[in-house]
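Journal club prep — side note

Before the paper discussion, L.F. wants everyone to see what a predicted structure for a comparable chain looks like in token form. Sequence:
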Amino acid sequence: MNVMIFSKYMNTPIEIKSKNVQDAMIFEFHGELDETNADKTFTDIYSSIGDFKSKKIILNLVELKYLNSKSIGYIADIFSNLEDVGSKMALSNILPEVHDTLELVGILQIIPAFATEQEAITSFTVA
């Protein structure tokens, strides 16, 4: 397992760890996403993903305590880009306050969400 810290910002703390498990690329979020760090954070994630073809992406929101509408837009855009080329994405480990926000805006109706990272990984192998 390879763990890499992408970015940590001074204004609002956010730390993103990236790792590959089986054939899934996992981004683990710690902190908050807001106007001060969303653009840079998601630019790093897009760069890491590269070509969207043949990808399995999990956004593990294990310690994400807050996200703004811009961040939700980035998540939806990543999902759309992956879906357009037949790739897959899932969310996992969503804290209740973030879950409520994602449910309210309808993201959880389009992006599969799982209680654990392992459940998300397993979902990629189910036909």
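L.F.'s comment for the group: The mean pLDDT is 91. Keep this in mind when we get to the figures.
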